[in-house]
TrEMBL record:
Coiled-coil boundaries: none
Keyword annotations of the record: Carbohydrate metabolism, Glycosidase, Hydrolase, Transferase
EC number(s) stated in the UniProt entry for this protein: 3.2.1.1
Record protein name field: Alpha-amylase
Signal peptide per UniProt: none
Matches recorded under InterPro entries: Alpha_amylase, GH, GH13_cat_dom, O16G_dom_2
Catalyzed reactions per annotation: Endohydrolysis of (1->4)-alpha-D-glucosidic linkages in polysaccharides containing three or more (1->4)-alpha-linked D-glucose units
Residue ranges constituting the Glycosyl hydrolase family 13 catalytic domain according to the UniProt record: 13-396
CDD domains the record matches: AmyAc_TreS
Annotated organism of origin: Pseudosporangium ferrugineum
Length: 548
């Protein structure tokens, strides 16, 4: 069995500022999170991914960093952070942090120095152009909120490059001192005890931007270099990257042409995410089958990270216009739910009309597919979104712990909260909260605990192979299997509303005491596998065999 921890991890992603506020100032903090570690351990989470923790003007939810060697004072101190690592470690939970080094905040002292004079030692840490680059209205990541990628700086008297918002000037990866600094930042946090990094915007980090060239070359070698560096500093540290690129390009992010995984360990599977949304919207598993078929083979040690929701909009940009139309129609019909023309700023439960069967189905499906599952905070209790908030903040509202004021997130005056707690009659904190669900064995939270426990007894899902079983099945039903040396699991997920029956008798010779380890209802014993009923929006995880 592989002992790569990240292949068997359950990753939970959270923003400290909206998770738990220990001192009543209205902003979540590290001590608040420490107080919730037992909750996370009980849920079965084995790794936390913290959205940016650094000091920041916070104009992009912390993705605009002002100091890479500290934590935001609103969250606590470096001492608190070390304590978090210790306390999490005591509970078997690793911590990875966002590494946002494509750009800095324009308030970062490096940029302030760089713009102040052509002789600044930091001038060449950023990307400049004497003249207005012809491609300055191309390549925007946030259309509607951003209208150029080059902005004229009056102090510097030059144009600077920013792939994202204009307050996020890009660092110049061509500069060896920048590359060394990135390695130093990683070494610093590894030394403190983090287990790795969620690397933000990797295709842009390695872009050797040339003014006027919208297809600037990419320095993929830097990824090999960084990997070697972090592995040398901490053998089992991981890089988990955001690289939403064309499928043909993906393999270069995992490793060089030598065939081993010597760059990024794990990539978010954006392609699968879009197809999952399409499959759920159409109530038809075909897009997932296609995704499984088209997934490039990964080098040994390379791993996908699967997700349904993250801290950004659901990104549908890799779907065709017609596919996108279907997903919008089903999950984001109002303009106010859509963002950047490509995405949906909603959480999963409201997208699925609050239908508990479909929420379970969607998460059972995600967690059973190949790769390491990543779960966004609040999804485990079926939190909703707040469309009155700007842009992506709709899905960044405070965690709903209880029916107490502010949902138990903070004792501050509601007007001082970092963001309002959801209080509508359907998804508000009085109806949807941890405390209520903890006491209810039939709640979504209790279901998540069971599902994650079951997954952790099935190492073949994270570490093994995942294959679609191509047999005649009712139209809504996806049948797939996971195999490794420890055993085999078979999965039925019915994305459609109609009950169906699946005949899997061809697998009978492989089966030893097949049994349902997780299912939406009580089904008859799988027997000879020749007539396996699965309800509309139902699912069955069947253990076929287990080797000891
Ligand atoms: C990707 C992050 O997920 C997003 O939230 C952020 O705005 C951009 N990168 C810029 O850092």
């Amino acid at each position: 069995m592989s002992d790569r921890w990240y292949e068997k991890a359950v990753i939970y992603c959270l923003d400290i500022d909206v998770y738990a506020d220990s001192d009543g100032d209205g902003v979540g903090d590290i001590r608040g999170l420490i107080g919730r570690l037992d909750y996370l351990a009980r849920l079965g989470v084995t790794c936390l991914w913290l959205n940016p923790i650094h000091p920041s003007p916070d104009r992009d939810d912390g993705y605009d960093v002002e100091d890479f060697y500290n934590v935001d004072p609103r969250f606590g101190t470096l001492g608190d952070f070390a304590e978090l690592l210790h306390q999490a470690g005591n509970r078997g939970i690793k911590v990875i942090i966002d590494l946002v080094v494509n750009h800095t905040s324009d308030k970062h002292p490096w940029f302030q120095s760089a713009r102040s004079s052509p002789d600044s030692p930091y001038r060449d840490w950023y990307v400049w152009s004497e003249t207005a680059p012809a491609d300055r209205h191309q390549g925007m990541v946030f259309p509607g909120e951003q209208d150029e990628t080059w902005t004229y700086d009056r102090t510097a008297k030059q144009w600077y490059y920013h792939r994202f918002y204009k307050f996020q000037p890009d660092l110049n990866i061509k500069n060896p001192r920048v590359r060394e600094e990135i390695k130093k930042i990683c070494a610093f946090w590894l030394q403190l005890g983090v287990a790795g990094f969620r690397m933000d915007a990797v295709p842009f980090i390695i872009e050797e931007t040339e003014p006027g060239n919208p297809n600037s070359p990419k320095n993929l070698e830097f990824l090999s270099d960084l990997r070697q560096h972090i592995q040398w500093r901490k053998g089992d540290a991981v890089l988990l990257a955001e690289a939403n690129v064309e499928p043909a390009e993906l393999k270069h992010f995992f490793g060089d042409d030598g065939g081993s995984s010597n760059r990024i360990h794990m990539l978010f599977d954006f392609m699968l995410n879009g197809r999952l949304m399409l499959a759920l919207a159409r109530r038809n598993p075909e897009p997932i089958i296609e995704a499984l078929r088209e997934t490039p083979a990964l080098p040994d040690g390379g791993q996908w990270a699967t997700f349904l929701r993250n801290h950004d909009e659901v990104d549908l940009s890799r779907l065709t216009a017609e596919q996108r139309k279907d997903v919008f129609a089903e999950f984001g019909p109002d303009e106010n739910m859509q963002l950047y023309g490509r995405g949906i700023r909603r959480r999963l439960a409201p997208m699925l009309g609050g239908d508990r069967r479909r929420v379970e189905l969607a998460y059972a499906l995600q967690f059973s597919l190949r790769g390491t599952p990543v779960l966004r905070y609040g999804e485990e209790i079926g939190m909703g979104d707040d469309l009155a908030q700007d842009g992506r903040n709709a899905i960044r509202t405070p965690m709903q712990w209880s029916g107490l004021p502010n949902g138990g997130f903070s004792t501050a005056d509601p007007k001082d909260l970092v963001r309002p707690v959801i209080s509508d009659p359907e998804y508000g904190y009085e109806q949807v909260n941890v405390t209520l669900q903890r006491h209810d064995p039939a709640s979504l939270l209790s279901w998540f605990e069971r599902m994650i426990r079951t997954l952790r007894e099935a190492p073949e899902v994270g570490s093994g192979t995942c294959t679609h079983i191509d047999i005649p099945a009712p139209p809504g039903v996806l049948v797939h299997r996971a195999d490794d040396r420890t055993g085999t699991m078979v999965f039925l997920h019915n994305l459609g509303p109609d009950d169906g029956v699946v005949d899997l008798h061809t697998l009978e010779p492989e089966a030893e005491f097949p049994n349902d380890v997780l299912a939406d209802s009580d089904y008859p014993d799988p027997g000879k596998l020749d007539a396996l009923p699965v309800k509309g929006y139902g699912y069955r995880w069947i253990r076929l065999r287990r080797k000891v």
